[in-house]
Structures are given as structure tokens and as C-alpha cells.
Amino acid sequence: MELSVKQMDPEEFGRQRQEVLTAWPTGKEVDFDEAVAYQKELPAAKVMAAKLAQGKAKGVTYAQPRAGVALISEHIELLRYLQDEGGADLLPTTIDSYTRQNRYKEAQGGIEESRSIGRSMLNGFPAVNHGVMACRRVVESVGVPVQVRHGTPDARLLAEVTLAGGFTDFEGGSISYNIPYAKDVPVENTIKYWQYVDRLVGLYEENGVRINREPFGPLTGTLVPPSISHAVGVIEAVLAVAQGVKSLSLGYGQCGNLIQDVAALHTLPLLAQEYLKKLGYPEVMITTVFHQWMGGFPQDEAKAYGVISWGAVAAALGKATKVIVKTPHEALGIPTKEANAAGLRTTKQVLNMLRDQTLPQTEELTLEEKMILRETRLILDKVLELGEGDMAVGSVRAFQAGVIDVPFAPSRFNVGKILPARDTTGAVRILDFGCLPFDREIRDFHQERIARRGRDEGRDPSFQMVIDDIYAIGKGMLVGRPRG
Ligand code: 5AD
């Protein structure tokens, strides 16, 4: 199949589907027409797209945790706890690492070991191994919509099983679940895998079932300049809509400077709408997702609550439709259900307190927005130019050329030349532009802001600043200032 942004042809989809559904025995449980009928029976309160549309209209920010364990009843108990004791508005099912790597045999081993030891030996819920009926039990056990959250380069079978299983939202995308997660998978391959997933969602849509899709916004974490993650989000939005997706949540990971974070939340949906329109796609439902701090956390739980709260503030003031919540156990690993619910309650308290407040549209906020818009457009226009109008082809070439370059990504298909660093106010700027297609004015802006920090700290901007920034929050600060 030649790479193109165009909708997959039905024959190619059918051919792949045979292959996908026979990769593990539970694939046989998928009966598309029956799955459509099942999805149609779900009450509106359990349909993510419907709930997000409601939230957007009311201007509220919903809180959603991450959560997943190996066994079905324990997973259900966990989700119920997060709903009832944490007040989660939306629920996740986080998938384990074996499933993310399509290693279903090893996931099976993890399930059996968990049964015999009596606690979860997987870092998530192995939805493919458990199969369609188990997914339905999960969905039927709670009162709110449930989303699949993972990190899978090839999620075709996972999507088939979980969507037939009644999940109404599927996270991920061809770039966002490749470049930050895999070392050796070509972007061209993941674009094709995710076109399958998006086409599947398109087929549900054409049969009257709306499934929400959510590209993974934060990429590698907290030092990703907003224009880079926005460019990836818009590309994945275009790729999804081209396959028939009609409901999208676009994500952004907290950088830590409030003005920049709010500017990023304001500009993300505008850019997606702009490029969808420019490329002739129909209007779709777009909501935003804000990720609380995706970098290293302080070990001290009291300090962790501070980090969590600051994320809740940015989500509320930026009017994100949804916030993905961290827990006080973040520095340690997978949280207990109590810690997870505590993160939710902290977040919801802040969201409720800020519900009716907005950040004034100051000159500074307008400037941040302008810079993000300009930078993202320069990247996206170059992607389209490289692809001769085709966003899929352009994306592959843009990664080769370093026109899109994700800092700190493990993928060998990412050039990895750019270096971000914070300015003196904690906003994420660019220290080394690598091959980003930015003009003089943008470069001067970043350099000037970083130089100001250098003066404040009495040192020349250098790689050391980047290192200091990576560890700063864990040590109790946002900007990695030298000691003394
Ligand atoms: N349960 C709860 N949180 C999880 N994360 C990953 N797997 C799980 C799970 N099974 C969280 C990590 C990190 C984020 C990327 O996902 O703790 O915060």
C-alpha cells in the first residue's frame, strides 16, 4: 500500500483486517455488526464524544485518571473506586506494556502469574488477552465513559477488541505513539497502522456510532515546545479526519509556565480547525486535553500535591475540556487506588474553585499565542510542502529532514538535534533549533528570552541549563537554577 493521506480503500482494509483479527484468538470474538449494535445500546452518559461535547458547551473541565491492572475483577474494582471515591468524571483503561508491544503470549503469562500470586504482575489491563466480553464487563460496571490509554505503535487489534468491547474513546496516533515510544519503527509504518485504526473508527461513525480519538499530546514530556506538539497534534487530526473520524480530543502536556500553557490550550483547537478547513475536510468536534506534569515528580507526597495542583490551575484557566490527573505516587511507580483517588480529589477541588475564573487576555498572553501560531504554521506548511500537499507523505519527510524534531525521543527516525530550555519565567524556549523551519524573528525571540535567563543566572546558556531543567521539579523548582 502506497503511503497517502487518502482514505484507505475497502479492499486493503479488509485484507488487513483478516490478518489483524487472526493475530490472537480473541480476534475471533469481534463481529463488527454486532459490535455496532452493542455500542448503540450504550446510554449517552457512557459515550465519551457525547460527554465531551456537553463539557465543552458548559465550559467545564473534566478530570480523568490513568489506571489499569492485570485481572478483570480487580480492574473493575479499581475503576469503581476512582469513580466513587475519586470523583473521576471520565475513566481510563491503561494497557500493559506487553500488549503495547503486541506480545500477547507474555501478557498471558502475566495474567496467570497475577492469578497465582494474588496481585497485579502487569502494569496495565491486557485488553486483547481478556477479549471482547471482558471489556464489556468493565464498561458495564461503571457509570461514565471509558477510554483506552496505551502507547502502542501497532494498535490495530487492540482497537478492534476494545471498540467491539464498548470503549468509546481510543488514545494514540501514528507519530505520538511511535516517536516517544519506539526506537526502530519507521513513521511510514505507524501512519499505515493508525490509518487502519482511524478507518475503523470511521466505519463505526458511518454506522451511527461516534468514537472519540485522542492523539497523545505530550510526546516526550515537559520540555517539548508547544509548536512541536501542536504540529504533531494537527497532523494526527488531519490523518484521522481523512479516515472518517468526527470527534477529536487534542492533547497538550503542561510546560509549567501558566501563560504559555494557557496560550497553548487556546491555540491548539484553532490550528486544527484552520488546517482541516484549508485542506478541505469537514468540520469535526474538537475538544482539548491537558496533561498534568509529565516529567519527573518530587518523592515527597506533599510536594507532589503542589505539582498536581499547579496542573489543575492551568487546565482550569486554559478551559481544557479534560485534564489527565497525576498522583502523589508518581515518583514511585504505579499508584495505589487510594493515591490515585487522592490525585483526583486534589484536582477536582482546584477545578471547582476556578470554574468561573478566566485569565485576562493580557499582552503577554496574546504574544505567546501569536508565537505558537506562527511557529506551528511554519512547521505545518513545510510538512505540506515536503509532501507536495499530502500530510502523510510530508510527515515522513519532515521527520527525515528534522522539520519536526521531538526533543529527547528514543526513535532513530527522529533527527534529535533540537534542544529546548526554559527562559527565566519557566516558559519552554528553544536553545538549538536544529533544522526547524523558523524565521529570524522567531529565532531572535527565543534567543533573547534564553539570554535573559543566562544573565539572571550569571552563566552562558548551554546544555547544562537543559539538564538542570529536566531535574528541576523533582528538586522543588520549575527553572533549573544553579545552586548558590
Ligand atoms: N495505572 C496508573 N497509572 C499508570 N501509568 C502508567 N501505567 C499506569 C497504570 N497501570 C502512568 C504513569 C505516568 C503516566 C505516563 O502513566 O505513572 O504517570
From TrEMBL:
Q: Name one GO molecular function term.
A: cobalamin binding
* CDD domains, alphabetized: Glm_e
Binding of L-glutamate, residues: R66, R100, R149, H150, E171, Y177, Y181
Q: Which reaction does it catalyse?
A: (2S,3S)-3-methyl-L-aspartate = L-glutamate
What keywords are assigned to this protein?
Cobalamin, Cobalt, Isomerase
What does the record list as GO biological process?
anaerobic L-glutamate catabolic process; L-glutamate catabolic process via L-citramalate
Keyword Metal-binding included in the entry's annotation: no
Q: Which SUPFAM superfamilies match?
A: Cobalamin (vitamin B12)-dependent enzymes (SSF51703)
InterPro entries attached here?
Cbl-dep_enz_cat (IPR016176), Glu_mut_E (IPR006396), Glu_mut_E_C_dom_sf (IPR014714)
**One short Pfam family name for this protein?**
Met_asp_mut_E
Q: Which residues bind adenosylcob(III)alamin?
A: G68, N123, P180, F297, K326, E330, I334
Q: What is its EC number?
A: 5.4.99.1
Tell me, how does this one assemble? Heterotetramer composed of 2 epsilon subunits (GlmE) and 2 sigma subunits (GlmS). GlmE exists as a homodimer and GlmS as a monomer.
- What's this protein's family per the entry? Belongs to the methylaspartate mutase GlmE subunit family.
What's the stated role of this polypeptide? Catalyzes the carbon skeleton rearrangement of L-glutamate to L-threo-3-methylaspartate ((2S,3S)-3-methylaspartate).
Protein name, UniProt field: Glutamate mutase epsilon subunit
Please name the taxonomic classification of the source: Bacteria, Bacillati, Bacillota, Clostridia, Eubacteriales
